[in-house]
Design a protein that fits this description.
It contains seven helices and seven strands. By secondary structure, it is of the alpha/beta class. The model has no long low-confidence stretch (mean pLDDT 95).
C-alpha cells in the first residue's frame, strides 16, 4: 500500500500530465523513470526532482518504437530492481473534421495513442508476470465518452485503449492491476499538435476558459497507485466542473 519506494515508468513525461505526475509521485517517495521525445525537457524535470530530494532518471523514448518502450522498462529494472507501475500517458491530438482529410494526422494518432500504449503494455507485462505484481495505468480521455465533431479519430484511439484496458484487466488475474483514467479539458500543450487552424483556435479558447491543471490528473493517478494490492481502481473520470 502507498507510493513510497515504488518504481514507476511514465511516458509522455516531459510536459503536461506526465510531468505533473512525475513530480507528485517523486514527492511521495516513488522512483520515477521518465520517457519522452524531448531530451532537454526530460533532463530539466529530472534535475528539478533530484534537486528537491527525489529520485528520477530518464531515457529519450518514442512510443512509436517498441524497442524504446522495452529500453525504458529495462532502465527501471536496472535502477530499481523491478517495475511496479507503468503509466502509458504519451498522446497527441491533431484533431480535425473528417472531410479535412488530414489522413497523416489520423495515422499519427493511431501510432502514438493506440500503438504506443500497446507497446508500453507489451514491454511491462512480462516483467509484471515474473514479479506476480504490477500496475498498468492508461491515460484515455473524456473525448471517448462524449463524442464531438472534429474528435472522431482521436476519440476512436482513446476508446480503443479503454477497451484494451478492460480486456487486460479481465485477463490479468489477481496479481495485476489495470486502471484507465479519462481526463477532461486540461491545461496542457495539447493544442500544439492540432494542425487545423480553426479547430486549434476554438479548442485553445475553450481550454483557456475552463481547463484544470495537470496536477488534478496526477492526483488521480496517485490515488489509484496508493490503494492496497487487492484493490483495483478500474476507471476514473476527471473533468472541469464547467465542462459539458
Amino acid at each position: 500500500m502507498g507510493i513510497e519506494g515504488k518504481i514507476v515508468a511514465i511516458t509522455g513525461a516531459s510536459s503536461g500530465i506526465g510531468r505533473a505526475t512525475a513530480k507528485l509521485l517523486a514527492e511521495r517517495g516513488a522512483f520515477v523513470v521518465l520517457g519522452a521525445r524531448r531530451e532537454e525537457a526530460l533532463a530539466a524535470i529530472v534535475d528539478e526532482i533530484t534537486d528537491a530530494g527525489g529520485k528520477a532518471v530518464y531515457k529519450v523514448t518514442d512510443v512509436r518504437q517498441r524497442s524504446d518502450l522495452e529500453a525504458l522498462v529495462t532502465l527501471a529494472i536496472e535502477h530499481g530492481g523491478r517495475l511496479d507501475v507503468i503509466v502509458n500517458n504519451a498522446g497527441i491530438g491533431p484533431i480535425s473534421r473528417f472531410d479535412a482529410l488530414r489522413v497523416e494526422d489520423w495515422d499519427a494518432m493511431i501510432d502514438v495513442n493506440l500503438r504506443g500504449t500497446l507497446y508500453g503494455i507489451a514491454a511491462a507485462l512480462p516483467v509484471f508476470q515474473r514479479q506476480r505484481t504490477g500496475h498498468v495505468i492508461n491515460i484515455v480521455s473524456t473525448a471517448g465518452i462524449k463524442i464531438l465533431p472534429t474528435m472522431g479519430v482521436y476519440a476512436a484511439t482513446k476508446n480503443a485503449v479503454r477497451t484494451i484496458s478492460e480486456a487486460l484487466r479481465q485477463e490479468a488475474g489477481p496479481h495485476l492491476r489495470v486502471t484507465e483514467i479519462s481526463p477532461g479539458m486540461i491545461s496542457t500543450d495539447f493544442t500544439s499538435s492540432i494542425t487545423d487552424p480553426a479547430v486549434k483556435s476554438a479548442i485553445g479558447e475553450r481550454a483557456s476558459n475552463i481547463a484544470i491543471p495537470p496536477a488534478s490528473i496526477a492526483r488521480g493517478i496517485a490515488y489509484a497507485i496508493e490503494q492496497p494490492a487487492d484493490v483495483d481502481v478500474g476507471s476514473i473520470v476527471i473533468r472541469p466542473t464547467a465542462q459539458d
